[in-house]
């Protein structure tokens, strides 16, 4: 099976693949969480409105260790 041109381009620019996750999160009306260089122990939370925050993240799991909720604590607002 031959790779499509789109797939080849995506794999060539793998550093941008998180943009697909961000787009999907925003389509669902959810915030997007990412860990960027310089974030240290925190994450960057971006809202569909474009607001960005540095947050501490706690992932709540069920008895089977399946993630069911993300709780975040805002550390500071980013520009």
How are the elements arranged and paired?
Elements: H1 5-12, H2 18-27, E1 32-34, E2 43-46, E3 52-61, E4 67-78
Antiparallel strand pairs: 1-2, 2-3, 3-4
Summarize the structure.
With 79 residues, this protein is an alpha+beta fold. It has two helices and four strands. The chain has helices at residues 5-12, 18-27; strands at residues 32-34, 43-46, 52-61, 67-78.
Question: How would you characterize the overall build of this protein?
Answer:
- By secondary structure, the protein is an alpha+beta fold.
- 23% of the residues lie in helices and 37% in strands.
- It has one domain.
- The N and C termini lie far apart (45 Å).
Q: What is the strand content?
A: 35-45%
Fraction of residues in helix:
10-25%
The main sheet orders its strands as 1-2-3-4
| Averaged pLDDT | 84
Biggest sheet character: 4 strands, antiparallel
Count of separate structural domains: 1
String of helices and strands: HHEEEE
What labels would you give this structure?
single chain; 79 residues; alpha+beta; four-stranded antiparallel β-sheet; 4 strands
């Amino acid at each position: 099976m031959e790779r499509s041109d789109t797939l080849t381009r995506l794999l060539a620019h793998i550093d941008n693949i998180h943009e697909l996750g961000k787009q999907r999160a925003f389509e669902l009306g959810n915030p997007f969480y990412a860990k960027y260089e310089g974030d240290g122990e925190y994450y960057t939370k971006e809202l569909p409105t474009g607001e960005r925050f540095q947050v501490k993240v706690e992932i709540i799991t069920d008895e089977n260790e399946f993630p069911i909720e993300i709780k975040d604590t805002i550390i500071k607002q980013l520009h």
